[in-house]
Write a structure and sequence with these properties.
Elements (H helix, E strand, L loop, with lengths): L1 H18 L13 H11 L5 H9 L3 E4 L3 E3 L2 H5 L1 H12 L8 H4 L2 E6 L5 E4 L5 E4 L3 E5 L2 H28 L3 H19 L32 E2 L5 E13 L5 H14 L6 E4 L9 E3 L19 E7 L2 E7 L11 E7 L5 H14 L2 E12 L4 H14 L4 E2 L19 E4 L1 H11 L9 E5 L5 E5 L15 H10 L9 E7 L2 E7 L5 H5 L2 H5 L5 H5 L3 H12 L18 H7 L1
Parallel strand pairs: 14-15
Antiparallel strand pairs: 1-2, 2-3, 3-4, 4-5, 5-6, 7-8, 8-13, 8-14, 9-10, 9-11, 11-12, 12-13, 14-16, 16-18, 17-18, 19-20
Helix pairs in contact: 1-7, 8-12, 9-10
Length: about 575
């Protein structure tokens, strides 16, 4: 037992050194015979020889990986133990829990969840979270499992850090881009190509009285307490073909500060799968964070830096649980009144510094993570009026963005590979709209600006974003078609990947993510009635059978309301 604990501490220490994380607190010293005797008097022969051996070596361990607190004698016999036991009994409100578990001694409790560690009469140890999750022959077996777990984390951390380092190698990047270029050429070889496509259809100008104009700053959705649930920012998103190097991260931060030298404390944090620890520096130009950047055991890598409402977020993301690679990204978020000319200059500099595949910039709607569903219903309503508005929810695009282009923004960035493919398909990026400017970037990329300043594209006031739509039409051969969002559902030590293929809120309710992606190419499909709208209208009509005939609905079959409803 002592050897296993010593190795757990050593392996966890090596992992912490790789991740620049805090080391585990070691277990306590020996409990002493008097303390052990007190525990025996309290619980009698319920305490197994292996557990008593643990107490004689270590009087509890408050930092046993990951998050489990093995009780000291004082905790075992005192209020902490009584509270944990009471919590276990509360879970048995229907009286169906096996007596073996209700009679068990609670010897440990997770600080983050309701997970407990139970010592049953046989001497076995049960990992319990609402039900028995795992059973070990004794405490030695449990600690052996912990040891294997920390070994797995160390191996994963070493593997992910090798991968992150490999992706910064110029040779690796060149081969990855060459492979992608060949794959895209082969994939598009059989696709029809008729030169430059005609421009997209333009929605009819709205009739009747037009609504009052709206500025980006006025697009705010608040709860009853005034807390912002949805809001708009000026942003830039670049999707990358590889993890950025530490030098590229520092270079991106310096460029960000040159173009937006605002004052204030610098708040920074390293991306993590579960919890992002925030750090503060009084100097907004501080680069103290640079030495802390490294991939963790999950593959998360990068840095998030914020000075007030000015945010720079560069992140490498591991494959999802299905083994699909996801694009790294660089995201810039600014107040809506920030100087857009500075954003253009920053976009050009970042696109030449980072391994960019594509990107877009302009006004984007964001939601508070604490109120996504209600916030995204409001964002959906905004998007049905403002076709130039992007949705700042990156996660679901990262799988497809490695190979395809999300679409045009006020700013559109094409890395060398995508620029080459599109030039081969439709010629160089030249446009009929004189407000569209094209800038060649060092290395073969392209930066396209659709107009002098970003626009919301208010179609309710006949302000369709024509320039942005023309750029989007140029991108059409490489436009992505799906949203693939994944998240992690945690219960104790167990984790499940959950996902979806629609943006949240109204996009999901109306099944309109695909139509939103093509809103500049086919505005009628996005602005017209959704599947939900048509279903509701049809249901309303079928509830009044005397007022219509089924064949008026365009449905085959017997003329009955029941039949019409069955088609829905």
């Amino acid at each position: 037992m002592h050897a296993a604990i010593a190795e757990i501490i050593d392996v966890a220490r090596r992992t912490a050194a790789l991740e620049a994380d805090d080391e585990l607190d070691p277990p306590g010293g020996p409990a002493g015979e008097e303390a052990v005797a007190r525990a025996v008097r309290r619980f009698g022969d319920k305490l197994s020889p292996a557990y008593l051996d643990f107490l004689r070596q270590h009087d509890g361990w408050s930092d046993c990986p990951w998050g489990m607190r093995l009780f000291s004698v004082d905790e075992l016999c005192g209020e902490v133990g009584e509270w944990a036991k009471g919590m276990l009994e509360d879970l048995d409100d229907d009286g169906e829990m096996p007596a073996e578990l209700t009679d068990a001694v609670v010897i440990g409790k997770c600080d983050n969840t309701a997970q407990t560690l139970l010592l049953v009469g046989s001497g076995e140890v049960v990992d319990f979270l609402y039900e028995e999750d795992c059973r070990y022959p004794d405490l030695n077996g449990y600690l052996a499992d912990v040891l294997e777990m920390v070994r797995d984390v160390l191996r994963a951390t070493e593997r992910e850090q090798r991968s992150a380092a490999e992706q910064t190698d110029p040779g690796w990047r060149a081969e990855a881009e060459s492979t992608l270029l060949a794959e895209l050429r082969a994939e598009l070889a059989d696709a029809p190509s008729e030169g430059r496509p005609a421009g997209p259809p333009v929605p009819a100008s709205p009739g009747g009285e037009r609504p009052a104009p709206v500025t980006p700053a006025e697009l705010v959705h608040r709860d009853g307490d005034g807390t912002e649930l949805a809001y708009v920012r000026l942003n830039l998103v670049l999707y990358l073909g590889a993890y950025p190097s530490r030098e590229e991260l520092v270079g991106a931060f310096r460029a960000f500060r040159r173009h937006f030298p605002v004052d204030g404390d610098l708040i920074w944090g390293l991306p993590a799968r579960f919890y992002v620890k925030q750090n503060r520096a009084a100097d907004p130009d501080s680069e103290e964070w640079a030495d802390a950047v490294r991939a963790d055991g999950s593959g998360m890598y990068g840095i998030r830096l914020a000075i007030g409402d000015h945010v720079l977020n560069l992140c490498g993301v591991p494959d999802n649980d299905d083994g699909e690679p996801r694009a790294a990204f660089c995201e810039v978020m600014l107040p809506v009144d920030a100087d857009p000319r500075r954003l253009v200059a920053l976009a050009a500099e970042l696109a030449e510094l980072l391994p960019v595949r594509s990107g877009h910039g302009g006004f984007s709607a964001y939601a508070s993570s604490s109120a996504q569903r209600s916030a995204y219903r409001e964002i959906f309503r905004w998007c049905r009026r403002f076709l130039g508005l992007d949705v700042g929810h990156l996660d679901g695009w990262l799988v497809s963005a490695r190979r395809w282009v999300l679409g045009a923004g006020w700013l559109t960035v094409l890395g060398p590979t995508f620029a080459t493919v599109l030039a081969e398909r439709g010629g160089a990026p030249t446009f009929a709209d004189p407000t569209i400017e094209v800038r060649d970037l060092r290395g073969g990329g392209v930066l396209i600006r659709a107009g002098a300043a970003p626009t919301l594209g208010d179609v309710a006031r006949a302000r369709f974003p024509h320039a942005q739509a023309e750029v989007d039409h140029y991108l059409e051969p490489l436009k992505l078609t799906r949203w693939t969002h994944t998240a992690l559902l945690m219960m104790g030590d167990s984790a499940w990947q959950v996902g979806g293929d629609e943006l949240p809120g109204g996009f999901y309710d109306h099944r309109m993510t695909g139509a939103w992606l093509r809103r500049l190419l086919d505005p009628a499909a996005f602005l017209g009635p959704s599947v939900l709208d048509r279903g509701a209208a049809l249901r309303h009509r079928t509830e009044r059978p005397a007022l219509h005939r089924v064949d008026d609905l365009g449905l085959a079959g017997p003329a009955s309301a029941a039949s019409a409803a069955s088609h829905v």
